[in-house]
């Protein structure tokens, strides 16, 4: 997929220089541990029959001095699969191995994250935000 197909916020995250140099930058998500995930379903105010889904996830980055926060808005579908056991970090600590983004259709994108335990997340969304904060 070319960078031009992605929204600016996804492009900034997916193609950042620091993401292409594991071990060279503190912000790289490889080996990050999941700290929390929240899935929210909210009724749309203008049409209560419609439900808007949002997912927020927070990861402790590999040097344990920064947190990566991701927010997926207008989620069309998601699968937050669990692996065959705990990750190498112990109970509740599963290492982020790799991820990729792809275009699903006009205005919808997929983020797939693979974890050391075998778990795979797949989130199809329209809105994306991210930031890195001190731990």
Largest sheet: 4 strands, antiparallel
Report the C-alpha radius of gyration, rounded.
15 Å
State the share of residues found in helices, binned by percent.
under 10%
Low-confidence stretches: none
Mean pLDDT: 85
Beta-strand fraction estimate: over 45%
Could you spell the SSE succession in H and E letters?
HEEEEEEEE
Q: Give the overall silhouette.
A: globular
Gap from first CA to last CA: 33 Å
By DSSP, the count of extended strands is: 8
Task: For the largest sheet, list the strands in their spatial order.
Answer: 1-2-3-8
Classification by helices and strands: mainly beta
Write a short abstract of this structure.
The protein has 135 residues and is mostly beta strands.
Topology:
Elements: H1 8-14, E1 33-43, E2 51-60, E3 66-73, E4 77-80, E5 96-105, E6 108-115, E7 120-125, E8 127-134
Antiparallel strand pairs: 1-2, 2-3, 3-8, 4-7, 5-6, 6-7
């Amino acid at each position: 997929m070319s960078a031009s197909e992605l929204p600016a916020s996804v492009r900034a995250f997916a193609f950042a220089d620091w993401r292409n140099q594991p071990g060279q930058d503190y912000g790289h998500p490889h080996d990050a541990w999941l700290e929390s995930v929240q899935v929210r379903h909210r009724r749309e105010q203008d049409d209560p029959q419609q439900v808007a889904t949002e997912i927020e996830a927070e990861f402790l980055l590999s040097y344990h001095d920064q947190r990566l926060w991701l927010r997926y808005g207008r989620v069309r579908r998601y699968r937050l699969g669990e692996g065959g056991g705990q990750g190498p970090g112990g109970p509740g600590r599963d290492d982020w191995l790799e991820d990729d983004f792809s275009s699903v259709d006009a205005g919808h994108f997929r983020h797939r994250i693979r974890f050391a335990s075998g778990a795979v997340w797949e989130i199809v969304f329209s809105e994306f935000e991210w930031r890195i904060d001190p731990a």
